[in-house]
Design goal:
The structure holds 2 protein chains of 2 kinds.
Chain A lengths: L5 H34 L5 H13 L2 H12 L4 H10 L7 H25 L3 H9 L4 H12 L1 H17 L2 H7 L9 H9 L5 H33 L3
Chain B lengths: L1 E9 L2 E9 L3 E5 L6 H9 L6 E6 L2 E5 L4 E2 L7 E4 L11 H12 L5 H11 L14 H13 L5 E5 L7 H17 L4 E5 L2 H7 L2 E6 L2 E6 L7
Parallel strand pairs in B: 3-9, 3-10, 7-8, 8-9
Antiparallel strand pairs in B: 1-2, 1-4, 4-5, 5-6, 10-11
Helix pairs in contact in B: 2-4, 4-5
The chains are: A mainly alpha, B alpha/beta.
């Protein structure tokens, strides 16, 4: 059976916290960007699209390094944030959540965008003849009909955040109790003699969390799908 | 009183419609592709004319010269679409009260009960649109448009997706609606027998132009 050390449990808890926070914080931005990309035509749209997808195609270490040289404690943006707003990302779990959020963002946006594009615009026309302005149209028609895609996007983002390694370790290092996630802990254990057993324990935990998240999202998506098909 | 005076180019097709409606059921009659749906989309605010004016009662809904274009959500024009367009994620009841809710009107149980009775949809209230038959769906769509308290009701071939038996099931509801309610109707159709039953006035539209206006006798010509 599982016999994790307190330090292992800390890594598990930290991973869950980072994945949850990064998914929830990314969500409103993901919905907004996905909506704009699905519905609006504007100059520079392909550039925005490319920027959103960048973390998907760049090596994660590159993304992590870019974060380090812009948001590090001594980097211009990072120093300004720390001095004026008291926000520090480097070598903190919040930095890990930021890195995970950015890595997961393209997957989230893609899933949500596809579901928004699939919505019948004629339903939104019908809502506006019934008196729904843009805001209410979005809140009562677009958002509920996009729900299966939003759930899928959150699931993908959560899974991506849970598995994130390269960008996180480059940006915020591998500090037990602060930035050491399950992935980083497994990596560390495989680097020391006799760490195999402990690494395997964490691997099992990672598998359990992933399968549970997948099943939960399937369940939610099925319910939401049945709802929007009007049955 | 509705006055429509609109021009619109849609690719090669050019639409130039001029007519007025003084209540009752005005039928826009003409072959497919005559521009009937485009005209009522302009009245609803879903399609913007290139030039012209649309005036309902005393309110200017659209005037290209004065740069007035009231958004669809503020026109209070009820629209029954050809395919119903019920919101699939809401129950029939929530579909029916959607317009009242969006318009910020107070709850009016009498109006609700009357519309439900008129259209005979009381047994459907808890159902989802996906579980309705075509005829039931169109009746709910009519109810939804009625319950938003429209100043004008637009019906775009509301029976076109139904078979003959279903059509004759629903026509009496629409006739009752015309006779019992003071809400004027613009009714789009290319089906002569249907038009004969419903029309108080006919506007014939062909190739984007109004070619005749008059009573139901236009149909026999």
């Amino acid at each position: 059976m599982l016999d994790l050390t307190p330090q292992d449990w800390t890594a598990v808890a930290l991973s869950l916290r980072i994945a949850t926070v990064s998914t929830l914080v990314a969500l409103p931005f993901g919905v907004a960007i996905a909506y704009v990309l699905a519905r609006k035509d504007f100059w520079g749209k392909s550039l925005v699209d490319a920027l959103v997808h960048l973390p998907l195609v760049l090596p994660p270490v590159v993304t992590g390094y870019l974060l380090l040289i812009t948001l590090g404690r001594k980097a211009p943006v990072g120093a300004w944030l720390a001095d004026h707003l008291g926000i520090v990302f480097s070598f903190r779990w919040t930095g890990a959540a930021l890195a995970c959020g950015i890595m997961a963002f393209p997957l989230m946006v893609r899933a949500i965008r596809l579901s928004i594009e699939a919505i019948d615009l004629r339903l939104e026309d019908a809502a506006s003849t019934l008196g729904a302005n843009r805001f209410w149209n979005f809140a009562t028609i677009t958002l509920p009909l996009a729900l299966p895609g939003i759930i899928a996007g959150m699931m993908l983002a959560f899974a991506r955040a849970l598995g994130e390694f390269g960008a996180t370790i480059t940006f915020v290092s591998n500090i037990p109790g602060e930035t050491q996630t399950i992935s980083a802990a497994i990596y560390t254990l495989t680097q020391v003699p006799g760490g195999d057993h402990a690494a395997l324990q964490l691997v099992i935990v990672a598998v359990i969390i992933s399968v549970a998240a997948l099943m939960a999202s399937e369940w939610f998506a099925r319910r939401a799908g049945a709802r929007i098909h009007g049955i | 009183m509705l006055v429509v005076e609109v021009e619109k180019k849609l690719g090669e097709f050019s639409l130039n419609a001029l007519f007025a409606s003084e209540g009752g059921a005005t039928v826009l009659f003409g072959p497919s592709g005559a521009g009937k749906t485009s005209v009522i989309n302009m009245i609803a605010g879903l399609l913007k004319p290139d030039r012209g004016r649309i005036v309902l009662e005393d309110e200017v809904l659209f005037d290209s010269a004065a740069r007035i274009d009231v958004p669809a959500s503020r026109r209070r024009v009820g629209y029954v679409f050809q395919e119903g367009r019920l919101f699939p994620h809401m129950s029939v009841k929530r579909n029916l009260v959607y317009g009242r809710w969006m318009g910020g009107h107070p709850d009016d149980p009498d109006a609700f009960a009357h519309a439900v009775e008129l259209l005979d949809i009381g047994h459907l209230l808890d159902r989802r649109p996906g579980k309705l038959s075509g005829g039931e769906r169109q009746r709910v769509a009519v109810g939804r448009a009625l319950l938003m308290r429209p100043r004008l009701l637009l019906l775009d071939e509301p029976l076109a997706s139904l078979d003959a038996a279903r059509k004759s099931d629903i026509l009496p509801y629409l006739e009752r609606l015309r006779d019992e309610r003071s809400v004027p109707m613009i009714y789009v159709s290319h089906d002569a027998p249907e038009v004969k039953r419903i029309a108080t006035r006919v506007v014939r539209l062909e190739g984007g132009q109004v070619t005749a206006t008059g009573g139901a006798e236009l149909l026999s010509a």
